[in-house]
Amino acid sequence: MPYAGNDYPTLASMKNIKLIEVPSEIGAGTRGASLGIEAIKIAALDFMSNFFIHFPSEKIQTENKLLYEPIESPYAKRIKGVSSIYERVSKSVTETIKNNFFPVVLSGDHSTAGAVIAGIKMAKPKCKLGVIWIDAHADLHTPYTTPSGNMHGMPMAVSINEDNEECAVHTLDEETTRQWNQLKALGKITPKVLPENVVFISLRDFEKEERHLIEKYGMKVITTKEVRNKGAENVVRSAIRYLSDCTDIFVSFDVDSLDSSISKGTGTPVGNGLREREAEDLISKFMQNRKICCFEIAEVNPTLDKENLMAEIAFNILQRSVNVLMMN
Question: The pTM is what?
Fold first, then answer.
């Protein structure tokens, strides 16, 4: 349960944690994810927790004004704005790590994850980065393959420097191509992550173009059923073992990894997902590992929710994870 009132450990006993707030939603197809961070803060207040006053935080300037403007690139919607967000977020993550803080990123839409990954690599160019991707979706689309043009379906492809042209269904204009290549090359490091160093957990909704990449690279997928059958501890152990060559590991949690019966407050809910307790156990057990260098929560959308339930679940997971981090 959340800490109530002032039961918090003293600041002196805490691991250096910094909250990076990115209330951007230009990568999503459904409006409202930019309000997710405030909804999580309201959940904290409802639980009488003073979590948010205990950590330094930085709020990244967004490009949400683009939601009111015509779309220039139909296969990479608002890519110029996404590019600006990538610059700002990667810079913030880099500085946070270089100042010996652990970045906890609260994102609107999940396109931000590509910027977080870039920031980790820019802070630690020699690190071998692993990614734990807890998400119903693979986010391995590119402007060449996207069915929607929404950039929150692309951060994993950006990070592994993949166009997937062999599955291309679109021809891109020059400007979109240039912006896309710029996004992949951010920090002048490509790829940021090797495909074999990505672990998908609870992945269950993806297109044949994404399946092609998963099979091409033999990317590791741990299903909801496996989590349920083996238990969080065994799943975490096997994922960490699988990434044993990695020096650093980033955990990105999209709330749509949760079952659609509880994840109504997100833009793309999918059935057969994780239960709240399973997600909480998984993430808190990952946080016990010293290789974990950054944690992100994305895609809480309170406009789709009743009684702020999704944000409350996200806050419980956030708080428990941070508590575990501080104890290690």
Answer: 0.96
